[in-house]
Amino acid sequence: MDQLFDPTDDVATPTIVDGVNVLGSLSPSRAADFMTCPLLYRFRTIDRLPEKPSSAAARGTVVHSVLERLYDEPAPERTLTRAVELLRPRWEALCEEEPELASLFEGDDALDHTQWLAECGSLLETYFRLEDPQRLEPAERELYVEHVLDSKLLIRGYIDRVDVAPTGEVRVVDYKSGRSPSELFEAKALFQMKFYALVLWRTRATIPTLLQLIYLGNGEVLRYAPDEADLRATERKVNALWAAITRATESGNWPARKNPLCGWCDHKALCPEWGGTPPPLPSEEDAAAAEELPPVDGVSSYSG
């Protein structure tokens, strides 16, 4: 999901990585980081290097927030007009939680606030062309889920929406503010959804009937019906990723991998593939002192 979250909003108390009963934790986002570039995973998860606010990510954040709050309204009032009305107050609330977001509209490179909000409104218009929220009653929104696998890896994340039909079928829905991927990259996009389906299956003993990605950037919807074999394969892949992360942690070798996203990476100046030098790895003591909350992702060597 391309948005920001506040861990204090969790309905459930997140399980803490203790290095014994829970060896580490992984979310779809951090798994995607490692698959894209192990060094990016290190920078975000171990070094915890700051990143500048992104216009695209902020746009996705506020649109997600509006769609979540829209379903608090009575069904007849879930209109596009009401959704657009929610944009400014939701943006102001998010800026209170993440003050650095306001920097997008300050300085020489500042965005035009009115135009930016209009772009958010355009994404909401696309949503209303794809779904009628007056006819939907989600069972869960912004649902925090977690499960400790037999390998002692904690898998967790936030699901945008879970729908449950009167006959019991479960649909997992995720909103994306960008454009749908080409067929070549559909499997990577679906990995996140299979990850969520795996957690739901392990915690509720029910395999979701349908996984649905809604791309607001171009109005496409990607649907997939998983089965048990899919989810077992996903579990093997997650465990294999964690094994690779553990090896990198123990060796201190986090290879950089050039990819099409390098142009948007905040850490390009530190990347050996672009002539940079990564900072020294933080000590366990430094990493522990920097943590105020249990990490969303992390290896036991660097998180408690």
Show the helix and strand layout.
Elements: E1 24-26, H1 28-36, H2 38-46, H3 55-70, H4 80-97, H5 113-130, E2 140-148, E3 153-164, E4 170-176, H6 186-204, E5 210-215, E6 220-224, H7 228-251, H8 284-290, E7 298-299
Helix pairs in contact: 1-2, 3-4, 3-5, 4-5, 6-7
Describe the fold and architecture.
- The protein is an alpha/beta fold and 304 residues long.
- It has two domains: 15-50 and 138-246, no CATH class; 55-135, no CATH class.
- Helix content is 39%, strand content 14%.
- Strands 1, 2, 3, 4, 5, 6 and 7 form a seven-stranded mixed β-sheet that branches.
- Strand 2 (140-148) and strand 3 form a beta hairpin.
**Helix run count:** 8
How much beta, percentage-wise? 5-15%
Give start-end ranges of low-pLDDT stretches.
Answer: 1-11, 288-304
Protein structure class: alpha/beta
